[in-house]
Amino acid sequence: MNRRSVSDQAFHRALASAYLKRLLMPTLRLLLLTFSLTAFSASSIIASIPSATGELKGTSTGTPSLSSRAASAISSASIHRTGAVVRVRGSDASGELNGTGFFVDPTGTICTVGDLVKRSDSIVIVKGGKEYPCKILALDEGSGTAFLKLIGEMPHSGENFLSPRANPTPQPFTPAIAIGCPREEDPSLSVGMITGTKSHEGDCFFRVPQHIAKIPLTEGEAGSPVFDFDGHLLGMVLAGNSQAGDCRILPSGVIEKLHLDLLRFGQLHQGWVGAVVEEAAVPEESSSTRIASVEPGSPAEASGLQSGDMILALGNRRITQPDTLLEASFYLRAGESVPITLWRGGKISRVTIQCVTPPEAKNYSTAP
Length: 368
Known about the structure:
- This protein is of the alpha+beta class.
- It has helices spanning about 10-25, 65-80, 115, 250-265, 300-305, 320-330, and strands at about 5, 30, 85-90, 95-105, 110-115, 120-125, 130-140, 145-150, 175-180, 190-200, 205-215, 225-230, 235-240, 245-250, 275-285, 285-295, 310-315, 315-320, 335-345, 345-355.
- It has 6 helices and 20 strands.
- The radius of gyration is 21 Å and the shape is globular.
- Mean pLDDT is about 80; it is low at about 1-60.
């Protein structure tokens, strides 16, 4: 069987082409998975350094005073966190895709990158040289996240896991450690730093802003968990450029939201409004977020939202730009009622929307 990494160029071009057809549009789609915009997650992935026990290479901070913190953080990650990290391998008619994942709870739930597994006919995780079959428990294409579940038993699978928690946005130059599985199967550590945040690639807006980092990753490390030197989980590597050493990291708070959905409802529970928004040339009340169209039969139509309405607030969150709305709407759930403040006809109006499940949502929990 042919082996190919997630950064395989042919796969990358085909995936990027498919995504561009869906995502490069003149307006921003508001799917409330909410206001309807799938995240642009091209899958070229990234990776690592050879050893989890201390053979490190990475970007240098050039700050000797960090050396003791770095040594402590590396030692702690090697001892306490590598046990939760696994290789993820998806297979289809074209060959294999290899990446990384990590346990997020003691029941054997694994978080990884959706592009790695969503087209796979069979999925396994590899730990300690042994393969364990898995199935997709949930897939959120908007954020690029997949959750897997073990089929059968795996020794000690519940002993090591990384609980996702929402953390403050890390400041630029925050040192970071990624743990991933490059071509060899054992987890390895890569050291670098956070350089900022990013909300879009060109005209394609992400569902939520993502952290940007300089971490020298290589092929096979899509899905690597990333930590700061205090051991806080910052997020999961989604995509990057192995030559430049750049990568995009999905924030841990996003993973937490999706994981809580699974724990509470047994499936992802995103809310859907059904509208299309665009950026207006002339803001109203400090917002340039304008409704371009409303989808027939959607909660947006039922609530009375109209083309030309300017969105000023979603719940208690002030909205100034379309990307602000996308981020706020990501955390809505089906069945939730949310007030929307808008500008219409020269005055402020308010409507309440009852979010529903996205019409194209797939329930993997009942899949064979």
